[in-house]
Write a structure and sequence with these properties.
Length: about 180
């Protein structure tokens, strides 16, 4: 249904995310972000927009991304059909893929980055997305779009991809 990437650029402190899907409304459903907190992506056959906002609330209180994902997904009775990733402002990541997510559904992590997808044409797509981001040059937004293209070239969403969304923000620059 969807694949997405969340990143933190170590050099500039910029956080960003991008998502694409074979369905409608990727912009309104998947990505959530706050410049001083981090980002989240919630997707799947029964996505929870609540997860995205709640993850940001937890991270705003100092909870690392991986712990925020664990807390939210462990208590949700609909988690089997959902997928979530999170990135905190320190570059920490977390991910969850529910057992009933539509195959191929998986995630991949790299330092300061996480990618995930479901209803993918193959399980290599999330790593291809991360590799595409790592190979790209220029602004974070341009590298995120290159990551989505790399995912598509690796097989992407099994239905093809239509809508895309990219979100970037920077607070304080270099640290």
């Amino acid at each position: 249904m969807t694949y997405s990437i969340l990143v933190r650029d170590e050099e500039t402190g910029t956080i960003g995310g991008a998502a694409t899907t074979g369905s409608l409304c990727v912009g309104g459903w998947v990505l959530r972000g706050r410049p001083d907190t981090g980002m989240s992506a919630s997707q799947g056959s029964a996505p929870s927009t609540f997860w995205g906002e709640e993850a940001l609330d937890l991270m705003a209180g100092g909870t690392p991304a991986a712990e925020a994902v664990r807390r939210l997904t462990s208590s949700d009775p609909g988690r089997a059909h959902r997928q979530m990733t999170a990135l905190d402002c320190g570059g920490g990541t977390g991910h969850f893929t529910g057992a009933e997510s539509i195959a191929s559904a998986c995630a991949a992590e790299a330092p300061g980055a996480v990618a995930a997808g479901n209803l993918l044409s193959n399980a290599d797509v999330p790593q291809a997305v991360l590799d595409g981001y790592a190979r790209a040059t220029g602004a974070v937004s341009a590298r995120l779009l290159a990551a989505l293209v790399a995912g598509r070239e690796a097989g992407g969403d099994s239905r093809g991809c239509c809508p895309r969304r990219c979100w970037c923000s920077r607070r304080g620059g270099r640290r």
